[in-house]
Amino acid sequence: MESEIASEFPPFCRIYKDGRVERLMGTETIPASLDPTHDVVSKDFIYSPDLNLSVRLFLPHKSTKLTAGEKLPLLIYIHGGAWIIESPFSPIYHNYLTEVTKSANCLAVSVQYRRAPEDPVPASYEDAWSAIQWIFSHSNGSGPVDWINNHADFDKVFLAGDSAGGNISHHMAMKAGEEKNLDLKLKGIGVVHPAFWGTDPVDEYDVQDKETRIGIADVWEKIVSPNSVNGTDDPLFNVNGSGSDFSGLGCEKVLVAVAGKDVFVRQGLAYAAKLEKCEWKGTVEVVEEEDEGHVFHLEKPNSDKALRFLKKFVEFIID
Question: At residue 66, does pLDDT exceed 80?
Fold first, then answer.
């Protein structure tokens, strides 16, 4: 007999009184394949045996025939999904990283992390950092995965993510800048439709509707990070908060992508503006699609605007 529902947070999940979690979307998976699809091969590797967490690697098929010494840009990708749904194995991310890998002629590593509510924040951040360190353990060519040893150019490492993954990517770049004792260098980060928020609107154009703001706060405070002392003003979520300092961001350039109909649009623009004004020495590029919504490029990947953004994202990696 099915247990009673304790709480529901559509469209993400339903929690039952016996503790069971039912995800309402983002549960479909697609296997990796060594048969080239769109001239790209993929393979999964466990990076955290203790937690049974994996990365999915994407490699241009022609790169399996590269001569010794030829390297490719390395893209580390953190998926979105409100810290609750989706994975590197979801069709939406598998297909997107396949296309990016082909178009940019890069090696892509898509990171799995523990998700809320079973594993609330900061588990996802801890896992992302662990995966990044694991990837960089290949920088001397003696890591456990030949694809990374043989093909990754560690002078051209890019970190990117969308939504929650965009948020995590920012924090990983901050940590990379703080960890001076680690030989961990990021060329750039792509912060795509980032899930940044706060108790109060970031400006007069930010979301004013109380129901919307309460709804986002409920997801963060009741599912994603129930232990946050400051609720939505937790520095992990309120990235643009008054106490934030981006001057130590550990990369040379940042691509900030926003969508005009996305609830996070003003937060993303405020983030870019704050980066430009702080003492960080890198460069910021903003890409805005005014008439589109959150992660439109994933939901409508063949649309003209999605293909235009793909071109911009690829240029960010290869330029």
Answer: no
Judge whether residue 85 has pLDDT over 50.
Answer: yes
What single letter denotes the amino acid at residue 296? F
Beta bridge partner(s), residue 289? 259
3-state secondary structure of 134: helix
Nearest to 106 by CA among 145, 76, 65: 76
Is the predicted pLDDT of residue 1 greater than 90, yes or no? no
Given a cut of 80, is residue 99 above it in pLDDT? yes
Q: What distance in Å separates the CA atoms of residue 37 and residue 172, rounded to the nearest whole number?
A: 31
For 56, the token pair is 């999915």
**CB-CB contact of 162 with 298 (8 Å):** yes
Percent above pLDDT 90 for the chain? 92
Q: Give the active site residues.
A: 163, 262, 294
- 64's tokens: 């399996």
In angstroms, the CA 214 to CA 237 distance is 14
Q: How many CB atoms lie within 10 A of CB 217?
A: 17
Residue 61 confidence (pLDDT) above 90 = no
* Residues β-bridged to residue 272: none
List of domains in the chain: 5-318 (3.40.50.1820)
Q: How would residue 38 be classed by pLDDT, with cut points 50, 70 and 90?
A: confident
Q: Which amino acid is at 240?
A: N
User: Can you tell me the distance from the alpha carbon of 182 to that of 44, in angstroms, rounded to the nearest whole number?
Assistant: 26
- Using CA atoms, how far apart are residues 242 and 145, in angstroms rounded to an integer? 42
DSSP state letter for 61: G
Answer whether 226's CB lies under 8 Å from 258's CB.
Answer: no
For CA atoms 58, 60, 65, 69, give the dihedral sign.
negative
Neighbours of 248 (CB within 10 A): 15
- State the average pLDDT over residues 205-227: 96
The answer to whether the Cα torsion of 92, 93, 97, 98 is positive or negative is: negative
- Backbone dihedral angles phi then psi of residue 151, each to the nearest 5 degrees: -120, -15
| 171 φ/ψ angles, rounded to the nearest 5 degrees | -65, -35
